[in-house]
Design brief:
19% strand, alpha/beta, globular, Leucine-rich repeat, LRR (right-handed beta-alpha superhelix)
């Protein structure tokens, strides 16, 4: 077993949340799906590749700053992150703390041009990490895609879903191209990993790989 998904739950007291599960008590996990608060139950999982956060809601007896600080230390090695539901403050904190991130999927897409702009600003400022690919939910990211490429020198691919279509834009390209639609698109990392690999193969032939 490599993947575990934990339904969101809130312990009745802080003592319950103080229990930590480490790699000694668990199989060699590669992926965890859980809420930000429930991430406090885990510690020292060095083989973990990816985290999927379903919620950033925090109960009254846990300080948000403490929860975010814990997960940034406990899961510092992850390079894949998905956010099903997270506010801009949580996103900003994670981007500044998880320095090994290379792939990020933001599934709660902006609902207005102003929200899309704000999100683009946050991602553009995340220059301390080496994001290679960003995947967005159901929103057309094309209007500010070039701004992201210009601000993040390691970013090579942006993927987004718009209506019934999935689009991909590579660094240096002016037009997005359609990609095969996956039935479980929101839960699969393979399209992102493959997109970066494809870009690398192409870029090496023309000596532009970043």
């Amino acid at each position: 077993m490599e993947d575990i998904a934990i339904p969101e739950f809130y312990p009745k007291d802080a003592e319950t949340q103080a229990i930590k599960l480490s790699s000694k008590e668990l199989p060699n996990l590669r992926s965890l799906t859980l809420s930000v608060e429930n991430s406090l139950l885990f510690d020292n999982l060095p083989l973990l590749d990816s985290l999927v956060f379903t919620s950033d809601r925090i109960s009254s007896f846990v300080e948000p700053e403490f929860a975010l600080r814990h997960l940034s230390e406990a899961f510092a090695s992850i390079h894949i992150l998905a956010l099903h539901s997270a506010g801009t403050d949580t996103l900003t904190s994670l981007l500044s703390s998880l320095l090994n991130l290379q792939y990020i999927s933001i599934l709660d897409a902006p609902s207005s041009p102003s929200q899309a702009h704000d999100l683009g600003v946050i991602l553009s400022k995340a220059t301390n990490i080496k994001l290679k690919c960003i995947q967005f939910g159901d929103y057309d990211i094309a209007p500010f895609a070039q701004t992201l490429f210009g601000s993040m020198k390691h970013l090579v691919v942006i993927v987004w879903k718009s209506g019934e279509s999935v689009w991909r834009l590579d660094r240096g390209s002016k037009a997005a191209i359609p990609t095969p639609v996956q039935d479980t698109y929101k839960n699969q990392w393979e399209p992102m990993l493959q997109a970066v690999e494809d870009y690398g193969e192409f870029a090496r032939t023309v000596n532009v790989f970043v």
